[in-house]
Task: structure prediction
Amino acid sequence: MAAKTTLNAKNLESLGAQRLAELLIEISTGSAAHKRRLRMELAGNHGSVEVAREVRKRLASIARSRTLINWRKVKALKNDLETQRNTIAEAVTAEDPEEAFELIWQFLALANSIFERSNDSSSSLIQIFHQACEDAAAIAASAKIASNVLAEKVFKAVQDNGYGQYDNLIVAMAPALGKDGLDCLKTLFVQWSKEPKDTPAEDKREIIAWGSGGPLYEDEIAGTQRDLTVRIALQEIADAQGDVDFYIAQQPEKTLRAPTIAADIANRLVLAGRAKEALETLDAADMRGWADMPFEWQFARVAAIEALGRAEEAQAYRWTCFEQSLHVEHLKAFLKRLPDFDDLEAEEKGIRPCPGFPGGPPGTCIFPELAGTSRGGKAGHEAEDGTGRRSLWDNDDGGRSSGGEIPARSNHCLTLDDRFHAR
Result:
């Protein structure tokens, strides 16, 4: 039973409302954050209108601030922003979704002023704005915002995405936009891409850097950034609409045959039921400059082969890729598709010493990712040694090292005895 002095809700209730109010005033003295929280709670007693008014006042105050946000102030600002965001997404939305929709966009508009005066190396602030994008999508659906109005808002926001605060906005908004909204948004971006770029007179051009090819002008960088913004936006719209051909059309001709881009396209073709085209896309990839094809390309090829109904060929290719790269994901995928107990022999074969592989000393390379997750730990596969420990495989000399903590090693290599202890 908790002591009467233990800090919990029941014990505090015994103090009575008047004494608790006095304590809250005392505790909040000198703490702006605590005072704001108390005012928000008081506003909540008078309905969402008062809550929205308090939120709007606080957002306007943050927008006006010009104080440098150093690492000491990031935590307090983060808590403040989270309080405002949660209040909008929960308290205001529950009673007035349209008001919440306006407030969440006011919240998102704070990003530029905040990032201009901060250096958040932990990325905690940008994550708040990404979550606010998710909130904006949910609120838009609740408020039943017209698709064309929503498309305009999303378009203008993505145009001003200098700090990446709107990176996930289109993906988040896709359900709320619907087919008509996505079509409208696509049209807006296509029209923007066709607008002439601003090119100042030669004597007015501003050099912002120098490269191996000479000066880099501000207008050139801005034009390149616009092209990239349009391409990414149209790709995300294509994904939302399930339009693989439109996605492919956004890729510059010179990058279509890059192995990672080819893998990206192939994965979408497989999902669209066009596995044969996916395989052709992968086979057309330009391998120049690659000693081995990247993992993404190999994985996409396996998926395409398997989608064509050639399961045995896909398994054989997985094993070939694993032998060449020792990438644990290939081994995991290979084992997953084996019948029970066949995977035990394959797993043992897969983690046997790998002479000559640069991942570590000969005879010690093994994958900790498999420990406790693969099916290699089935009863009957382990053997008990003389010490009562249960191990998987002996070392080459038949001995085992002593017990204890797993020693520090590289991320991808553990000894066989380490594997035993990891289990």
User: Anything to note?
Assistant: The two ends are 39 Å apart (CA to CA).
